[in-house]
Structure formats: structure tokens, C-alpha cells
Amino acid sequence: MNIVFMGTPFFCIPTLEELWRDYNVKAVVCQPDRKAHRGHKVFPCPVKNFAVSKGISVLQPEKVRKNDQFLQKLKKYEPDIIVVIAYGQILPKSVLDVARLGCINLHASLLPKYRGASPIQFSIMNGDKKTGVTSMMMNTKMDEGDILLQHEMDISEVDVVGTLHDKLAQLSARCAVETIEGLRDKTIEPKMQDHESATYTRLIKKEDGRVKWDQDAKKVFDHYRAMTPWPGFFTYFEDKYIKIIECHKGQGSGRPGEILKTENVIEIACMDGSIIVERLQMAGKKALDTKSFLNGNSWMKKGIVLN
């Protein structure tokens, strides 16, 4: 079974590794190397790093639409199937038609719920108890293809985006292999999505991590979980940036954003209930447990209000 894999971020790696182990991965297609981090050095994406380490051919077109040179290179690999995860571009019909068995996409939600860029974050932020991975036949629209397989999993009350991301990445690998085998053996019947019940997510931005203390403690905590580790969950006191790294729900009451307690832990009032902070970080400083933080930041006192 000849496979071309298209994807870019770390989420892809468990699936790509499984495909490399079980099939003939002829090439990977990923986004071009980009500048990242301080110093603006150019870094390859995780998928490219993996491919290079295994001797797999790498294609990195700036765009795939109206790119005949890329299309001809893709056809030379004669793929039986193209597997796509978080590639970063919508594929034209000319690319979708290259593979003998078609082009499949793995998406980290139970479609048609949470189409778009940030399904993991929004499932946590909305307090969902379950999520999963969907494989679908791709078409020229975003996440609207016919469903092939779905694997469901529970969301733990303490899952943050980082932990749920890793669990779903592993589940995606299993779903990908089962989908490929089902298409090969003709045991999967594609099922049209219920487009009327579809919901959509947008790209998460850095400013989305700012705490909204005028919500109940559960919503604030779910917001924290959805923003951890990136973009981070942060608040301010006057002009001081404070990133909350670890916290849990409490039962305290007060004005939204008010510091209720500063004895070993920091307790902050929400509209209903409170958040108890265990670890935090100031801009440009290292992360500290609350006891260490309080020893070095005397301004953090009971009664002040964060915003």
C-alpha cells in the first residue's frame, strides 16, 4: 500500500510513525520551514523532522492550488491513498483525485461537531465530557467530507489541552490504520455528515488566554484547561502580567477577581466559587509555586482585585 502523508504539527507524528511502520510511505507533504521563537531562526516542522530521520521524501510547496509542478511530483509517487492531518491548506480537487482509494482526513472531534482549527480547545472550554477522532473522505470544503470511522473517548476533568492533544494524537493513529484497512477491504461505507448540526471553531489567539473572572468557577477552570499550555491562562494586577500555570476549583466567594487568601495558596474569587492557584509566573520570570511566589511578591495581598 503506497501512502503519501500530508501534515505539519506534532499531532501528526503518532499517525505518521504508525503508517511508516505498517505501509510504504512514499513521501510526506508539509508546510515550508518557518521562522519561530526568539532570534527568528528558521525551523522545520515536526513532520519534516520525522521524515528526514526515516529517509522519506519531503515536499514543501508554499501552496498546493494551481501548482502544476507540485501536482506532477505527487502523481509520480502513485499513492493508493493520501492521509491528511492538520496540513494547513484546503486541497483542490486535482490533488484529491490523485490517489487510487482517495484522500482521507483525520480530525480531532466527533464531526460534524467542532469543524475548523481548534476542536480540542473548544471541546474543553465548553465543558464537554466526550470527544474523539473522525476519519472522513475529503472534499474541497473544510471538514465537510463523508464520515468513514469515528473513535470516541472521555475527557477527564483534569485534562488540559496538552494532555488531551496527546491522547487524541494516539487515537488518531489507530483510527487512520483502521480506516485504511477498511477502504482497502471495502468494509467501510462513507456516511454523509449532518451539515445542519455542524458547529465551527476558530483559530485560538494569544489574547484568548486572558481570564474572565466574572464567570462561575467551573467556566473559569474549563477556560484554564483549554488554554494550557498555549497560549497560557493569564490575568493582570494593574500592569503586572500573571500567568496561572496550575490551579483548581474552590468554594470561596467575593468580588470577581478578588484575592481571598494568600496563605501557601492564592485563592481568587469568581462570579460564583473561586480558583485556587498552585503555580504561577510573572512576565520574564521563572514559574514558582505559590508559597515561593508570595515570599518574593509582597504586593500580592488579600483584598486586591485582578483584572
UniProtKB/TrEMBL annotation:
Binding site for (6S)-5,6,7,8-tetrahydrofolate: 109-112
GO molecular function terms noted in the UniProt entry: methionyl-tRNA formyltransferase activity
Domain Formyl transferase C-terminal: 204-297
UniProt keyword Nucleotide-binding present: no
E.C. number: 2.1.2.9
NCBIfam families attached to this UniProt entry: fmt
HAMAP family reported in the protein's UniProt record: Formyl_trans (MF_00182)
Official protein name in the record: Methionyl-tRNA formyltransferase
Species of origin: Muiribacterium halophilum
